[in-house]
TrEMBL record:
A GO MF label: protein kinase inhibitor activity
Bias type Basic residues, positions: 27-39
InterPro entries on file: SMR (IPR040389)
Record protein name field: Uncharacterized protein
Record key words, sorted: Cell cycle, Protein kinase inhibitor
A single BP term in Gene Ontology: regulation of DNA endoreduplication
């Protein structure tokens, strides 16, 4: 009676992965390239005569809300209705000025 052992990994020496004799060399460092500065064009840079007119006609884009700062102000003031979301382009001094004006309004009430 023969017993079926199923699938097995070959164990003969010809099927075994040979051991590495020497470690591979470390990766080579990439050569660094020095960026050369170009001289400005001889004729100068192009300045369109109606550049300001073009830039003025561009509609202002809607900015995203800076969530953490507006939430911080909302929790400080304790009412989210008094805190408006400010634009990302708004500087920190504008945020502080807005915060102080909201605090002053609360003192008046």
């Amino acid at each position: 009676m023969e017993v079926d052992e199923g699938c097995r990994t070959p164990t003969r020496i010809e099927y075994q992965i040979p051991a590495a004799l020497v470690c591979p060399p470390p990766p080579k460092k990439k050569p660094s390239y020095v960026k050369q500065r170009r001289s400005p064009p001889k004729e100068g840079y192009f300045h369109p005569p109606d550049l300001e007119a073009i830039l003025m006609n561009i509609a202002p884009r809607r900015e995203a809300c800076a969530w953490p700062a507006s939430e911080l102000l909302a929790t400080t003031v304790n009412t989210i209705s008094q805190v408006s979301c400010f634009h990302l382009s708004t500087g920190i001094w504008d945020v502080i000025r807005n915060y102080c004006s909201v605090k002053d309004q609360q003192k008046d009430i």
